[in-house]
């Protein structure tokens, strides 16, 4: 248990049997009346975002979420298998929990897996990854008015938009949050 005075970004609360992470909070002391805490909460499992207000000093139940650095090993059916580098324990994480990050997962990628009571909640990929272009059509000179883009398939199977000068076999830096091309890697 903690009070609303202990709230900070990233803390996970257990409200009505559901896990919510605090994405934003603000202590408010109006000129008249008691102080309160205005928070923005994100549901850990569904991703739903809500605003909730607590009276100052109210007790809230915190959830014990264990964030561990793990290495992605391989895909087993619909599950992804990760290994803890310290204990060498392997856990299976369903594709629903991995979500869109599956498009950028290569074997031996270091990720953070959040676990609560033995259940994996989410997988946090590094913000940027270096991936090789598996296939892209050649860009034709003169078929654009300004810097155009074309689709490219990465070694993980993900499709992203890249500038016309990118060729098959080049290594690119990709933003894993939205699949944006960030540049070439030498």
**Total number of distinct structural domains:** 3
Tell me, briefly, the overall form: flat
The CATH topology annotation of the largest domain reads as OB fold (Dihydrolipoamide Acetyltransferase, E2P)
Total strand segments:
16
Assembly state (oligomeric):
single chain
Strand % is: over 45%
| Overall CATH architecture of the largest domain | Beta Barrel
Global Rg: 21 Å
Q: In terms of per-residue confidence, which ranges show pLDDT below 50 for 5 or more consecutive residues?
A: none
Would you identify the CATH H-level superfamily of the largest domain? Nucleic acid-binding proteins
Structural class category = mainly beta
Q: Which CATH C-level class of the largest domain is it?
A: Mainly Beta
The N- and C-terminal alpha carbons lie at a distance of: 50 Å
Number of helices: 1
How would you state the average pLDDT, rounded? 85
What is the helix fraction of residues, given as a range? under 10%
């Amino acid at each position: 248990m903690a009070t609303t005075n202990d709230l900070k970004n990233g803390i996970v609360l257990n409200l009505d049997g559901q896990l919510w992470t605090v994405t934003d909070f603000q202590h408010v002391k109006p000129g008249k009346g008691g102080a309160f805490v205005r928070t923005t909460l994100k549901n850990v499992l569904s991703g739903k975002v809500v605003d909730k207000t607590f009276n100052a000093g109210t007790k809230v139940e915190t959830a014990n979420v264990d964030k561990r650095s793990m290495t992605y090993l391989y895909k087993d059916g619909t599950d992804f298998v990760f290994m803890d580098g310290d204990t060498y324990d392997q856990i299976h994480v369903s594709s629903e929990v991995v979500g869109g990050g599956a498009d950028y997962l290569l074997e031996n990628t270091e990720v953070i897996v959040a676990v609560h009571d033995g259940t994996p909640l989410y997988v946090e990929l590094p913000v940027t990854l270096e991936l090789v272009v598996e296939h892209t059509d050649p860009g034709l000179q003169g078929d654009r008015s300004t810097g155009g883009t074309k689709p490219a398939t990465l070694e993980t199977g993900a499709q992203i938009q890249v500038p016309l000068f990118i060729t098959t076999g080049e290594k690119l830096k990709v933003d894993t949050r939205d699949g944006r091309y960030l540049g070439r890697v030498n």
